[in-house]
Amino acid sequence: MGRTHRESHRTERIGWLRAAVLGANDGIVSTASLVVGVAAASAGRSEVLVAGIAGLVAGAMSMAAGEYVSVSSQADTEQADLARERKELATDEAAEVKELTQIYVDRGLEPKLAEEVTRQLMAHDALGAHARDELGITENLAARPVQAALASAASFAVGAALPLLVVLIAPESSLVIIVSAVSLVFLAVLGVLAARAGGAPVLKPTLRVTFWGALAMLATAIVGSLFGTVV
Question: Roughly what angle, to the nearest 10 degrees, separates helices 93-106 and 111-130?
């Protein structure tokens, strides 16, 4: 008895993986930068923690709202395209057959085979065939606003919590150095995990996230130091 072979592809993870990696990266970078900037201004541990927690809450809500609005706009566009395609199928099916047939011909099929494939696919699911091959909309890559918002908020909160844990245990006199160093390690680990989850090479994304994280923390440390000196 034959068994159904079900392949697992990394494109199935794109929706939540992008939002989760972006959220965690932003959580680490923004919170660590905020903490480093406040600590560089000669603030005490309690002030640094208050600023960091406020940044965590505000950032998580901002990420959720931003992802929801952005992905909702994408979903609205997809639905508008599908509605137009559905109308065209109802009013001029012959033209839609020719259109899809030409797509398959352009991809390398013989015209007769392309037309036969088109008719069979449209007989099974006309809108699905046009959505996939004409519009590029598939179930795996379709916009999911709520999923993206929740993934972004949760991952941002987790990422932001990491520098705050360091603030709790690091000596107050060395907060800037220790938080910066440990946060860069967190970013490097995130880069490795994201690359492996997406099947990409590890080195380039790891260097990318650590470089921009280091730059952000350096900038806020300079600003905090200048502010603390002036005040």
Answer: 120
Query: Residue 20 in contact with residue 155, Cβ under 8 Å?
Result: yes
pLDDT at 62 over 60: yes
40: exposed, middle or buried (Cβ count in 10 Å: 0-12, 13-18, 19+): buried
Q: Do the beta carbons of residue 176 and residue 42 sit within 8 Å?
A: no
Could you tell me which of 87, 10, 18 has the C-alpha nearest to residue 79? 87
Angle at 140 between CA 151 and CA 3, to 5 degrees: 120
- Which amino acid, residue 37? G
From the list 29, 26, 51, the residue with the least C-alpha distance to 40 is: 51
pTM of structure: 0.69
Residue 137 exposure: Cα atoms within 13 Å on the Cβ side: 20
- Give the closest residue to 159 by CA, choosing from 16, 18, 25, 17: 25
The string of pLDDT tens digits covering residues 87-112 is: 888 888 888 888 888 988 888 888 88
Cα–Cα distances (Å) from 122 to 98, 118, 126, 150, in that order, read: 12, 6, 4, 36
Which phi and psi (to 5°) does residue 142 adopt?
Answer: -65, 150
pLDDT of residue 231: 41
How many helical (H) and strand (E) elements, i.e. helices and strands, does the chain have?
7, 0
State the DSSP code for 202. Answer: S
